[in-house]
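Hi F.,

I've been meaning to write this up properly since the lab meeting, where we talked about keeping a consistent format for the predictions we share between groups. The idea is simple: the sequence comes first, exactly as it goes in, then the structure tokens exactly as they come out, then a line or two of notes. No screenshots and no reformatting. I'm using this chain as the first example so we have something concrete to point to.
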Amino acid sequence: MTELKAVKTASPVRGAAVVAAAAVAAEVVFLAVHQAGGVDLAVRSGSTVTHVGAGPVAVVSLLVSLAAWGLLALLQRVSTRGRRIWTVVATVVFVISLLGPLGGETAGATLGLAALHLTVAAVVIAGLRWASAR
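Output, unedited:
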């Protein structure tokens, strides 16, 4: 008979707190860069310019955080090294995500968008590692 081993996953309360914290932190950075700094967060893709607003910042932050949390839970269920694997994957995804801000209309927009990516990544990676600590 095989023995089932209990697998530790991220605490629902801690995980939810990390998801919320990532969205709040992104909004704080957005407000600091856009409102206080006066930077128009605009990205050029071909001939189209997209202006990034507070709503999309919150929604994308929430979606990315939830996806990260789901992947962490899955990896922790299928591997004893799930947390370590997830950390590597999350870091790689963050680095790749920095390609997006390179399309910023201005240097300020590029730096502001990169700051948003860095903020969400830092909160999600550190936070979900903490939430899933054994």
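Notes:
The helical segments are 12-36, 54-78, 82-97, 107-131.
The mean pLDDT is 92.

If this format works for you, I'll send the rest the same way.

G.
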